[in-house]
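Recall that a protein's primary structure is simply its ordered list of amino acids. Everything else, from secondary elements to tertiary packing, is in principle encoded there. The following example makes that idea concrete.
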Amino acid sequence: MLADTVRTWVAGWAVSRRTPSPVAQPWGFYIAVTDNPAEVGRHVLPEAEESLVRDAAASVTVPRTWMKTRRASRRPRGGRRSSARQRWWTGW
């Protein structure tokens, strides 16, 4: 389910910013960002597993390539789940 959610989000993000379609990678997805001097591309990882992060980072060949991933889930006191907004890094 998480993989489907990430795939859908990545596709929507690319369409909304008129970038090329996301490219599936072993660690997640890569999106080339056109017409933005502050960012040339972004890797989107569905999980922040060390091996996935290392593989994605090793593939970076140019500056201003961003990496986005879901942060580890944390339950606040009282055991309630945090909102979806709190589980994702800001800036997506």
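The chain has one domain: 2-87. Helices lie at 2-16, 50-58, 84-87.
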